């Protein structure tokens, strides 16, 4: 959009916003009319049902990473790396160019976060997270955080 909210990154406050499934019909339809500025082609090999969740969970986590103000090369901490946290991790790495530290208490989730590209993983039940962050960042600390 072109309103003050849309042009300053606060799209959710736009008075003219049209959200499929909320203000207009068509959230899970096979076909829907959308503004070309917001259309994304889904690859042929991607199951549409699997892709549909990105419009809710994906937008939520993208917005969190975006408003964190993180910039390329800066450190972002993602606290909780389940479904939402792993999306935040991927946006931070692949869209924003950030370095990501994933925090959780579940080693399986942390190992998956590492597979997705986390620069470091911290199980806060095993190590002091503050000491570990300071070690990773040469005592600079994190530039921003996302808590999921």
- The share of residues in helices is 25-40%
Radius of gyration: 18 Å
- Number of β-strand runs: 4
User: What is the structural class?
Assistant: alpha/beta
Number of domains: 2
Cofactor: Zn(2+)
Family: Belongs to the zinc-containing alcohol dehydrogenase family.
Domain Alcohol dehydrogenase-like N-terminal: 1-44
Protein name: Alcohol dehydrogenase
Notes on the structure:
The chain is α/β, with parallel strands linked by helices. The protein has 2 domains: 46 residues, no CATH class; 91 residues, NAD(P)-binding Rossmann-like Domain (Rossmann fold, 3-Layer(aba) Sandwich). Strands 3-2-1-4 form a 4-stranded parallel sheet, sandwiched between helices.
Question: Which keywords apply here?
Answer:
148 residues, single chain, four-stranded parallel sheet, ADH-like_C, alcohol dehydrogenase (NAD+) activity, alpha/beta, 2 domains, Rossmann fold, metal ion binding, zinc, EC 1.1.1.1
């Amino acid at each position: 959009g072109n309103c003050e909210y849309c042009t300053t990154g606060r799209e959710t406050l736009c008075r003219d916003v049209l959200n499929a499934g909320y203000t207009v019909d068509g959230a899970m339809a096979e076909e829907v009319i959308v503004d070309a500025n917001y259309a994304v082609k889904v690859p042929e090999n991607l199951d549409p049902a699997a892709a549909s969740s990105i419009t809710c969970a994906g937008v939520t986590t993208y917005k969190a990473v975006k408003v964190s103000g993180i910039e390329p090369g800066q450190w972002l901490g993602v606290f909780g790396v389940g479904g939402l946290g792993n999306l935040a991790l991927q946006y931070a790495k692949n869209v924003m160019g950030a370095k990501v530290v994933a925090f959780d208490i579940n080693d399986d989730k942390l190992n998956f976060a590492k597979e997705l590209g986390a620069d470091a993983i911290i199980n806060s039940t095993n190590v002091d997270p503050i000491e570990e962050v300071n070690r990773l960042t040469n005592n600079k600390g994190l530039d921003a955080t996302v808590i999921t």
